[in-house]
């Protein structure tokens, strides 16, 4: 289990990355924390000619705190968020979820942008960032474009990344004081890949209420108007009005047929909503 | 000096290097000019090889079956049991492959990555054959055949019937289908081999982390057609073995051949994908089992058909039938009952050979019989412990020959159960179950009792007729000129702490400081022959050998000491590392110095053996020691997600005299973790084409620290009557009982739902499926099921 021979570049600017990945005569793979790519290289599931390491680019390792949102560089690690080295604007949601990603050794190196771009459906960031309404910013030869997190995963292990594009930052909106959130992940042991994820954010003052069902076969299922499963988002116990049957139907429509799979995902979402207590 | 002898919890000598990361494993060995090997392995489970194409420029770096044919023989591990069909495991496959991962070509290069590049360039054309992927289907007449010449897929069928029909009038008869998944045992260190031809010694030196170096020498000698004087096996530190590191692998033979052919050192380090998909398979059992009992819970008889998926080949030295045939002899467990019938099949399939894993057949057997004991309890309306107390062998019966003639040497099994129960609040847990949990989870309590035969010897293994029969275990005890003591044994530690415990044994007899006693092991060149470390035998056998050698050495020490004290040898004794006479004493250091450095001070009549002894040991009876334990698990089951949490775990074990109680605790912790793996996590699935479905630890789950609770431990120490100090083997026990205890606890929790899980691992999906099936069957036939479980 050793990788094929490849070239390696560690540029210090995004422009240089865009130039390197534009070379379509060779197979180029971008590498951030390497926590998924590393094993895939060793298993020779990926056999690139060139690895472009993004971790030498200062811009990708910073965050900047705005009035309505925070911009988190793509190479910020899970541990940076877990340890609050990045300002939290989500009333604890992101640091709490970060704390449950895989193991600490993975969190020390794994990055938010790498995880999103790797596009594993069981990854935590897809679900919780979709729930908070985050967006990714992609930069390519034609400039920047912004995509909602839930649209960034096209399918399992496939991100909406056009030729020559690189994910540069993640924009996370600041939740209001009225916001409540919950996150429930079903996995068989600490650090294991999730088999079902429920993520939920309601922010009544901003008129937002989003439920996400993750760790499916493909992209997370976003219920953008979660009112039909939790009411107006202001009741003390939101789960009282949780409609499991409605969620089951949504799952079925999304192509999930196995009754136990559906049950596990419905329960994960309900438990996420049960956690959402007023702060 | 703190107590260092038998029974003292002396800190482990080996921890100084292990805990600092300074162990030396095969993967740490660097020899000048060493090159790396990667193998071309079969991607198919069952296929004919039509053609192997090697790019011309790589031909010198690639070796296939025809290259090695003249110098090697296939691995052939025959059992002498009547009817056993032997298999030839080719060193490199030709004509046909019979499992995914089977070796087809060996590629050598300066680095492993380059060797893998070469392997990727080798093309093999196959004609795929139907895969034998399921051991039950494999026994049908229309099944494809793994070994065509056999006419069926059965290595061996065994049958035992002891007065079975006498049980048929019992009022209670319960039948269940029970199974344990195929696993891949997972030591942290995989296999690995470094081989080099040593010109001066005219010898092939093979470094391989191994539990049984002398057995590997036997196997290599046979497969390479090389006399044993020309083979030296060195086993450095071993990062966990559990049975896998005792097996002679085709890779070992390949590397040995290559080192002789090429003249430079070569190395193969197994990677985790090779390990999981092509190596360490174990455990897959299937039982159709019926128990007969009286209404008071007294077991009248057990009737069982058991199958083991033995895989494609018979592995060396334990063979393909040890596991299944052992089921027949150990299924009765620690229980006393009068009627028994058991038929077993060792079934050949297109999977890797089944290998003995810590506990070997006992883990599956214990799971099966313990689930049935709980079924009897439920049927009789008794607490599970009451049924155990009615049927466990009683202390006044000791020594006890059970229904399959297993000789239970000593012990008080009911007392271990009582002590274990005292560590939980059963009445409180029953009340808590009635009340229900605030979070909706279901609480369950389960127990499991087992016995573990250890250190069974010649009389037991002669009957199996496998390539390895243990005889006398030998040890060498040799003093150095400055008064240190070397112990040499042929077994090898793969985590058992023998560098600490065997010096404790010698210290007990000779009084020499444990710090000045060094264990030399893991090298055929320096150690007496041994079948090695397996079968929970080292404390008894190597410990007994060290004790015997130490006693002989003590006589020699006293002889010289008496001369130096100018007194008769009958008047001296050994005390605190000195020979003490009626009026004065002399230290062992000085005795050693005199023998080696000042022979002029010794009389002509001095015993010429000096201060070195090699001697063999067997217990007074070699039918094995019987250690045992009661495990109790308390679980909380989430009926919505199927998750199981272990909220309490109790182990009360009896290992006879413990040489080092701290080391025994460590053995129990480690075994428990593996037993939890069997119970809840580990599963090597195959699809219908025989493809293994887990190739990394992302797919093959092992319990981690957060999944293994700190158990409440209790020790009993009923001495073994036939061994030195009354020691019993305990190394495997921790891994035997957890599936039974956890399985019973889960089913206890699920009882209100009418559900039960009878297959390991008890995954969330299996739990949810059981709940769903029970709900379905409640709807279908509600009246009959008012009080219990669906059949």
Keywords:
A: 279 residues, alpha+beta, 5-stranded antiparallel sheet, 4-stranded antiparallel sheet, 14 strands, globular, B: 791 residues, 31 strands, 24% strand, disordered C terminus
Provide an overview of this structure.
The complex is a heterodimer of chains A (279) and B (791). By secondary structure, chain A is α+β, with helices and mostly antiparallel strands. Chain A contains eleven helices and 14 strands. Chain A has a five-stranded antiparallel sheet with strand order 4-5-10-6-7. In chain A, strands 11-12-13-14 form a four-stranded antiparallel sheet. A three-stranded parallel sheet of chain A has the order 1-3-2, with helices on one face. The mean pLDDT of chain A is 94. Chain B is an alpha+beta fold. In chain B, the strands form eight sheets. Chain B has a seven-stranded mixed sheet. In chain B, strands 7-17-16-15-8-31 form a six-stranded mixed sheet. In chain B, β25 and β26 form a beta hairpin. The C terminus of chain B is likely disordered. At the A-B interface, α11 of A face α3 and α18 of B.
Spatial sequence of strands, sheet with the most strands of chain A? 4-5-10-6-7
The helicity of chain A comes to 25-40%
- Gap between N and C termini of chain B: 62 Å
Structural class by secondary-structure content of chain B: alpha+beta
H/E topology pattern of chain A? EHEHEEEHHHHHEEHEEEEEEEHHH
């Amino acid at each position: 289990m050793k990788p094929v021979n490849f070239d390696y570049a560690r540029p210090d600017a995004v422009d240089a990355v865009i130039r390197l990945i534009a070379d379509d005569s060779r197979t180029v793979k971008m590498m951030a924390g390497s926590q998924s790519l590393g094993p895939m290289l060793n298993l020779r599931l990926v056999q690139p000619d060139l690895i472009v390491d993004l971790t030498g680019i200062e811009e990708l390792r910073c965050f900047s705190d705005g009035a309505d949102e925070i911009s988190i560089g793509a190479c910020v690690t899970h541990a940076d968020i877990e340890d609050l080295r990045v300002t939290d604007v989500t009333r604890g949601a992101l640091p709490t979820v970060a704390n449950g990603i895989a193991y600490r050794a993975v969190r020390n190196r794994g990055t938010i942008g790498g995880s999103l771009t790797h596009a594993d459906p069981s990854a935590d960031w897809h679900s919780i960032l979709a729930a908070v309404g985050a967006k990714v910013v992609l930069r390519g030869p034609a400039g920047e474009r912004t995509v909602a997190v839930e649209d960034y995963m096209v399918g399992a292990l496939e991100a909406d990344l056009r030729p020559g594009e690189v994910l540069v930052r993640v924009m996370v909106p600041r939740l209001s004081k009225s916001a409540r959130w919950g996150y429930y992940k079903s996995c068989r042991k600490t650090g294991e890949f999730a088999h079902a994820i429920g993520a939920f954010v309601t922010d009544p003052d901003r008129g937002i209420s989003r439920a996400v069902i993750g760790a499916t076969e493909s992209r997370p299922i976003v219920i953008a108007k979660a009112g039909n499963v939790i009411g107006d988002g202001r009741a003390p116990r939101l789960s009282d009005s949780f409609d499991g049957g409605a969620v089951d139907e949504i799952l079925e429509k999304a192509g999930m047929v196995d009754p136990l799979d559906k049950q596990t995902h419905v329960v994960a979402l309900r438990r996420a909503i049960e956690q959402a207590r007023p702060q | 000096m703190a107590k260092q002898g038998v029974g003292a919890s002396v800190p482990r000598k080996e921890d100084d290097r292990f805990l600092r990361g300074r162990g030396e494993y095969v993967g740490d060995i660097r020899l000048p000019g060493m090159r790396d090997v990667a193998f071309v392995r079969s991607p198919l489970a069952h296929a004919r090889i039509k053609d192997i194409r090697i790019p011309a420029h790589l031909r010198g770096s690639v070796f296939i079956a025809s290259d090695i044919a003249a110098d090697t023989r296939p691995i052939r591990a025959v059992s002498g049991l009547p009817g056993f069909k032997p298999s030839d495991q080719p060193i490199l496959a030709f004509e046909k492959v019979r499992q995914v991962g089977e070796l087809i070509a060996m590629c050598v290069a300066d680095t492993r990555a380059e060797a893998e590049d070469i392997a990727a360039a080798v093309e093999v054309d196959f004609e795929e054959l139907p895969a034998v992927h399921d051991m039950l289907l494999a026994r049908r007449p229309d099944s494809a055949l793994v070994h065509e010449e056999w006419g069926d897929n059965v290595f061996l069928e065994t049958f035992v019937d002891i007065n079975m029909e006498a049980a048929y009038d019992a009022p209670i008869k319960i039948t269940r289908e029970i199974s344990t998944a195929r696993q891949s045992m997972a030591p942290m260190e995989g296999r690995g081999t470094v081989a080099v031809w040593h010109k001066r010694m005219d010898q092939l030196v093979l470094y391989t982390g191994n539990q049984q170096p002398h057995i590997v020498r036997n196997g290599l000698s046979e497969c390479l057609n090389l006399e044993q004087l020309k083979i030296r096996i060195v086993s450095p530190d071993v990062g966990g073995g559990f049975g896998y590191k005792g097996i002679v692998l085709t890779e070992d033979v390949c590397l040995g051949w290559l080192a002789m052919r090429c003249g430079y050192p070569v190395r193969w380090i197994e990677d985790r994908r090779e390990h999981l998909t092509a190596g360490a398979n174990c455990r897959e059992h299937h039982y159709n089992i019926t128990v007969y009992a009286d209404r008071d819970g007294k077991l009248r008889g057990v009737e069982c058909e058991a199958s083991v998926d033995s895989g494609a080949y018979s592995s060396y030295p334990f063979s393909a039938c040890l596991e299944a045939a052992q089921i027949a002899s150990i299924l009765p467990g620690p229980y006393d009952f009068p009627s028994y019938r058991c038929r077993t099949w060792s079934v050949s399939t297109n999977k890797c050979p089944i290998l003995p894993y810590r506990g070997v057949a006992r883990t599956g057997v214990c799971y099966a019989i313990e689930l049935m004991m709980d079924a009897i309890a439920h049927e009789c309306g008794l607490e599970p412990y009451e049924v155990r107390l009615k049927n466990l062998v009683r202390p006044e019966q000791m020594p006890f020959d059970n229904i399959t003639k297993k000789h239970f040497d000593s012990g008080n099994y009911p007392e271990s159960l009582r002590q274990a129960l005292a560590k939980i609040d059963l009445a409180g847990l029953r009340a808590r179950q009635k009340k229900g949990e605030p979070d909706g989870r279901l609480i369950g309590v389960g127990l499991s009792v087992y016995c573990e035969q250890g250190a069974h010897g010649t009389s037991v293994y002669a009957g199996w007729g496998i390539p390895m029969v243990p005889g006398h275990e030998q040890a060498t005890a040799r003093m150095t000129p400055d008064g240190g003591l070397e112990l040499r044994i042929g077994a090898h530690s793969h985590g058992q702490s023998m560098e600490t415990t065997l010096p404790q044994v010698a210290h007990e007899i000779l009084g020499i400081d444990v710090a000045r006693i060094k264990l030399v092991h893991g090298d055929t060149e320096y150690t007496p022959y041994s079948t090695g470390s397996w079968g929970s035998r080292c404390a008894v056998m190597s410990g007994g050998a060290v004790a015997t050698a130490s006693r002989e050495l003590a006589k020699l020490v006293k002889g010289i000491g008496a001369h130096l004290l100018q007194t008769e040898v009958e008047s001296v004794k050994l005390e605190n590392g000195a020979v003490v006479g009626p009026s004065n004493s002399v230290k062992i250091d000085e005795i050693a110095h005199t023998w080696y450095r000042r022979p002029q001070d010794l009389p002509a009549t001095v015993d010429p053996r000096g201060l070195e002894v090699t001697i063999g040991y067997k217990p007074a009876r070699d039918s094995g020691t019987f250690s045992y334990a009661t495990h109790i698990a308390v679980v909380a089951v989430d009926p919505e997600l199927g998750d199981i949490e272990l909220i309490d775990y109790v182990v009360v074990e009896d290992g006879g005299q413990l040489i080092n109680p701290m080391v025994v605790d460590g053995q129990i912790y480690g075994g428990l973790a593996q037993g939890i793996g069997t119970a809840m996590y580990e599963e090597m699935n195959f699809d219908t084409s025989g493809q293994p479905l887990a190739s990394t630890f992302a797919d093959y789950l092992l319990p981690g620290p957060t999944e293994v609770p700190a158990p409440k431990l209790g020790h009993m120490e009923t001495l073994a009557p036939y061994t030195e100090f009354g020691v019993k083997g305990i190394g495997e026990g921790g891994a035997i009982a957890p599936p039974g205890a956890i399985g019973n606890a889960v089913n206890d929790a699920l009882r209100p739902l009418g559900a039960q899980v009878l297959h390991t691992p008890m995954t969330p999906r299996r739990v949810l499926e059981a709940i769903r099936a029970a709900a379905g069957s409640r709807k279908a036939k509600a009246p009959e099921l008012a009080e219990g479980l669906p059949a």
